[in-house]
């Protein structure tokens, strides 16, 4: 068996068992050997997540196993994404993404980032638990056209409004468009806090970001479903696989 075939097999097994550092190392080795990133995704990572889903359905895997497998896949995708997303053209626009203060849920945000980068946006990821003060510093520093806020708790959703007010107080509100999302968020809620748009999933976050750029007067190609290259379609498939698993996890999650 060639080293390339071994890498695919080991990637499959280590994604299945959720060993993130090993999947990261194997993915890098594969890229260094000149393997096609699409083969790594479609012949190792995505089949592994599909198997995770099957094991969950038959009761052999539980939410923690699904989470660590999804994380392992995300680590591999972090290596593949710049290669798949490298279209060699100027970024479509700059987006600053964060999870609001008090909230550590980042899987949904990270999926949006993967899709936004795949669609040609430059994304600054501020991570989780980001205070309004840090937001203002980052907007001043990076001068993005768009800011995206993610919240997954009913107790942290109000930080959308706090962040928007902080932008107003800093005189930055008319310099950026604000998009929001997260499991408990609805379009009505987004509008009530003064956001410019709401995205229910990662694909929609791309459409929304492009629409907001157009609203601001930028020329952005609006290509329907957002998939315009092999790389973009591959990332969409990978994001779909992670989203599928997470939806199963949602049904099982125990609060408190
Ligand atoms: C995984 C998970 C966790 C993980 C988070 C791991 C991580 N690194 O993210 C851990 C275990 C840490 C966790 C902790 C907690 N959790 Co939790 N968690 C979840 C769970 C099961 C899945 C969330 C997720 O990642 N979904 C996967 C993604 C893909 O979901 P998605 O919504 O489809 O994401 C898309 C959109 O939302 C959109 N989107 C997201 N962000 C953005 C941003 C923009 C700009 C746009 C346009 C779009 C967009 O695009 C995403 C991609 O397609 C949810 C269940 C649920 N219904 O969401 C509970 C859930 C969110 N958690 C909950 C709770 C209660 C907690 C804890 C308080 C539990 C506890 N007592 O400790 C803590 C809080 C920690 C904190 N301070 O944040 C509750 C919240 C209830 C509520 N009403 O507030 C939920 C709803 C579970 C439940 N039914 O009780 N959690």
Explain briefly what this protein structure is:
This protein is α/β, with parallel strands linked by helices and 256 residues long. 58% of the residues lie in helices and 9% in strands.
Number of helices: 10
Order of strands across the biggest sheet? 2-1-3-4-5
Q: Provide the helix percentage.
A: 55-70%
**Shape field:** globular
Q: Would you tell me the overall average pLDDT?
A: 89
Count of individual beta strands: 5
Query: In CATH terms, what is the architecture of the largest domain?
Result: 3-Layer(aba) Sandwich
| Rg measurement, Å | 19 Å
Name of the top-level CATH class of the largest domain: Alpha Beta
Describe the SSE topology.
Blueprint (H helix, E strand, L loop, with lengths): L2 H14 L3 H13 L4 H21 L5 H23 L8 E6 L7 H12 L3 E4 L6 H11 L3 E5 L8 H11 L7 E5 L5 H6 L4 E2 L3 H14 L14 H23 L4
Parallel strand pairs: 1-2, 1-3, 3-4, 4-5
The site of cobalamin has 35 residues, from helix 5, strand 3, strand 4, helix 9 and helix 10.
Description:
The chain is of the alpha/beta class and 256 residues long. It has two domains: 3-87 and 229-252, Methyltransferase, Methionine Synthase (B12-binding Domains), Chain A, domain 1; 94-215, Cobalamin-binding domain (Rossmann fold, 3-Layer(aba) Sandwich), CATH 3.40.50.280. The chain contains ten helices and five strands, in the order ααααβαβαβαβαβαα. It has a five-stranded parallel beta sheet with strand order 2-1-3-4-5, sandwiched between helices. Strand 4 (177-181), helix 8 (187-192) and strand 5 (197-198) form a beta-alpha-beta unit. Helix 1 packs parallel to helix 3, helix 2 packs parallel to helix 4 and helix 5 runs antiparallel to helix 10 (230-252). The longest helix is centred in the N-terminal third of the chain and has 23 residues, at 63-85. The mean pLDDT is 89. Bound molecules: cobalamin (B12). Cobalamin binds at residues 102-109, 111-112, 148-150, 152-154, 179-184, 199-202, 205, 208, 243, 246, 249-250, 253, 255-256.
